[in-house]
Amino acid sequence: MSALQTLSHYDIQMHPVALKILSILHFLRKEGFSIIFCWVPSHVGISGNEIADSIAKFASTFLTQDIPYSDVKKSFVSHLHTTWQNNWDLQMNNKLHFVKPFIDMWPILPIRELDVKLTRLRIGHTRFTHKHLIFGERTPVCPTCHTDFSVTHILIECPSFKSHREYHFNSQSLTLQDLVEISNYPADNYIIYSDSLSVIQALSSLHRHSHPLAFSILDLHDRLVCKGFSILLCWVPSHVGISGNEIADIAAKNASAVLDNSTPLKDFKHYINLALHSRWENRWNSQSMNKPHSIKPVVTPWPILTNRKADTIVTRLRVGHTRYTHRHLLMGEQAPMCTQCNCI
């Protein structure tokens, strides 16, 4: 699956092997070949699948491909990360290890700046609550509760900040303590099966522009893990028409019906883009007598050249309009003649 996704998203910085495959594919298409890539789930243990894997591995032994720098770097980074994690796992008596047992960023906040802030809140060390240790001042005391200020006291306990909780969470009774009380089920090992591969991939490749629902899901996952739960997400192919699958789909839809989530802007944008693209394509299809339409019947870039600049160049070549052959129309000059063939 990852190989096909890489080939479908051309980039000059993509893996050298992928670039070589695209080059060969482009050459074969010019020779008249029609090649379609199709993904099928792996079936380990099936004889036909094992034979195909053996043949593929045998064919690759004849390739003399240098190891790309990106692969070497990835191997080094993975090794260093493992060594770092192993050393950190030995610090069982360290308070910080209890707060953050893994060296990766918190799943909900992969951005470094936000990760630092969240870590400081979880360990309870902030400038407001601990700067007295640096400047030799007295410990700050809450004037309402007459107790030392702490992150827990400010965010959860102190009644003076109740209005702030109501403002940020739109509830009169909600406190941050309620947010971490997710489930009354006993902590155990759970597996969540989903037939949406795109959702699982989105959860495993989180970035700052990810869908808000992905952040919410990982937030719940992170808090459940902190409570001792072990949750594994597993993808299964969709089986339409099978009774068990239909029951699971209905249960999932019923569960989502009680969620009060606003529609993110990116969903509106995606829908509007699809609608505009469809209207654009329909209007272009009505131009059947237009010469460029016969050359490029779709409004999307050429499949092999998703880069805008390269797509523009190849489009001009296909329609036959270039600066050299058509500049005379702009400059009021005579059409350039071929000195060998005596034609335009």
Q: Could you provide a short overview of the structure?
A:
The chain is built from 17 helices and 2 strands. With 344 residues, it is mostly helical.
Walk me through the structure.
With 344 residues, the protein is mostly helical. A two-stranded parallel sheet has the order 1-2. The chain is 54% helix and 3% strand. The chain folds into five domains: 3-61, no CATH class; 69-99; 112-170, no CATH class; 176-258, Ribonuclease H-like superfamily/Ribonuclease H (Nucleotidyltransferase, domain 5, 2-Layer Sandwich), CATH 3.30.420.10; 268-331, no CATH class. GO terms for molecular function: nucleic acid binding; RNA-DNA hybrid ribonuclease activity. This is RNase H type-1 domain-containing protein. Residues 1-61 form the RNase H type-1 domain. InterPro entries: RNaseH-like_sf, RNaseH_domain, RNaseH_sf.
Q: Could you name the ranges where pLDDT drops below 50 across 5 or more consecutive residues? A: 171-183
CATH architectural name of the largest domain: 2-Layer Sandwich
- How many strands appear in the DSSP assignment? 2
Shape descriptor reads: extended
End-to-end span in angstroms?
Answer: 49 Å
Structural Rg? 30 Å
Class per helix and strand makeup: mainly alpha
SSE series: HHHHHHHHHHEHHEHHHHH
Strand content range: under 5%
The helix count comes to 17
InterPro entries: RNaseH-like_sf (IPR012337), RNaseH_domain (IPR002156), RNaseH_sf (IPR036397)
Protein name: RNase H type-1 domain-containing protein
GO molecular function: nucleic acid binding; RNA-DNA hybrid ribonuclease activity
